[in-house]
Amino acid sequence: MNNEKDKNLNALEPQEETAAPQQQEEAREETAAPQQEATEEKATKKQDSGKKKSGKKLSFKKYLQSPRFKHGSMATVMTAGVVVIAVLVNMLVGILADRFPSMNWDMTKSNSNSLSDKALEIVDGVTQPTEISLILTESEAKSNQYYSQVATLAEKMAERNGNITVQYIDADANPGFIAPYTEDGLAAGGVLVKTEKRSRVVTQGELFPSQIDYSTYQTIRYNDVDAALANAVSAVNVAEMPVVAFDTGHNEGMDTTYLQSFLKSSNFDTVTFNLLTDEIPEEAQVIVLAVPQTDLSSAEATKVMDFLKDETATVDRSLMVFYYPSQTEFPVLNTLMNEWGLNVKPSVALENDSTKMLGTSVDFIASVAVKTESNGSTTNLINENKTGSSYGYLRAYMANPVEVLWETRNEVSTDILLTTSEQGQTAVFNEESGQMEPASEEKSAQTLAAVGSKLVKYGAADYREAKVFAFGCVAFFNESVLKANTFGNDDYTTDLFSYASGTEATSAITSNPTALVTNDLVIDATTMKVLGLWVFTIIIPASFLVAALVVFLKRRHL
Hints:
The protein has three domains: about 80 residues, no CATH class; about 120 residues, Glutaredoxin (3-Layer(aba) Sandwich); about 260 residues, 3-Layer(aba) Sandwich (Rossmann fold). It is about 40% helix and about 20% strand. Strand 15 and strand 16 form a beta hairpin.
C-alpha cells in the first residue's frame, strides 16, 4: 500500500515540474514588458539628445507639433506682446496728452494749470474765430516753469472751444508780426488775443504782476494768467466796447492805472486826454475827472456840457467826478455839478453803526440805495437785475459826502447810489483844533455817491441819457479793494460804468494772483524728477522687460 501510494505521489511530481517553467516564463514576460518599454523610451530620448548634440533637428512638421514649440512660441509671443503694448500705451498717452491738454494732471496747490469756472464760462461763450498768439517758441514756453502755465491754459481754451486756436510766434524770426502792436506793449513774453472785431495785448506784467513786500522790501512776482487770458478773450469777443476817457489836465490826485486795467478786463476801452488842450475823444462815452486838483476853465466846462448834450450822439454819455475830503472847492466845477442837482463840499462821512464799521468810523461798509418805482417796488438803479445784497460788502474809506439839491428840476432827475447807515454823520475840519469834528450831533444816512440825469433827443423820436456822477469815495476804486475777494467793489464798479455808458459790460474775472514760488507744486522738483525720469521712464518699462524675460526663460524649457 505504501509503495503504491508512493507511486501515485511520484506520478504527480513530473506533471508539476512540467507546468512550473511555463508559468514562470509567462510571469517573466509580464515583468519584462514595462521594463522594456521604459528602456526603449530612454533610448528614444537618448537618441533625440544625441541628435541635438550632433546638430540634427526634427523635421519642421514634427517640430510644429512638439510641446517645445507650443510652449516656447507662446512665451515669445507673450513677451513681444507685453513690450509692444507698453510702448503703444506710452505713445498713445503722449499723443492724447498733446491733443487733449485737460488730461494733464494739475499738481499745483493753487490750480494754476486749470481754468477757473468764470474762465470756462467765458470760453464757452466764444462764437467767432479767436486767435491766441504766444510770443515765444513752443519749446521756450513749455520748458519754462511759469510760461508753461500760459501755454497750458491757452491750449485748454482751444481744446474746450473749437473757435479758439493757439499759435507760438518767435519774435526774432517774425518781427513783422508784433510790429503793429508794439505801441500796445506787445513784446517777447506777451500774448496777443485777436478776432476780426479787435485785438487785445496781454503783457508779461499782466500775466505775472509784481508787487513790493514792504516788510522785506523784496519784489514778489505773482501768477494772474487765468484772469488775464480769459478777460482778453472776453474783450475781443464782446459786441460793444464802450470807451472811458480819463482827463490828465488837472493834476488829478488819483492814480487810475489799475482802474483802467480793471475796466479793460471788464470789456471797456480806456483812453487818456487833456481836457484843456485836446478835443474829447470822439468815441468816448464816459469822461472821468479823478480828484482834480485845479478848477476847470469856462471853456472846458462848455466843452463838457456840449459833450453831454450833443444831439447827434446816439449813445449814452456821462461825466464822472471823483472827490476826496481834502479836495479844494472849485467854483466852475461846482457850478457845472449844481446844474445836475449835485453839490460837494470838503467833509468826511462818519459811520456810527458798529455792525458796519471796519475798525474806525471812516472805514465802513456802504449801503446800496434803491429807487422806488411808481408801483411801490424798489430796484437797484445801476443794475435792475441785482439787489444791494448781491454785491456783498462794499468798502468805503475816507468818503466825502455828496449833497443832492433836488429830485427833479429843469428836466434833470437825481438819484442816490450809495449811503452810510442811518447812524451816519458828517465831519468837517476844525481849524482851531486842527481835527475833523462832527458838523452836528444829528445822525442820518449820508450820501456817498449820486447821479443827475436827463433825456437828450436825437433823430425824430429817439432819446438817450446824459448823466453826471458825483462819487465821494475815491478809495472805493483802490487796487487793493477791487482785488479783495472779501468785498464786492469790483462787481459794483463794472455795473456803475455799464450804467454810465448805457451798455451791458461783462464783469471781469477778479484778479486773485498767487505768488510765483516753486513750492506751489504739490510735489517738489526732486520728486518730480524721480517720478518722471526714474519711475515712468526707466523703472516701469524695465520691470515689464524683466518680467517678460523671466516668463520667456521659464516657459522655453517646457
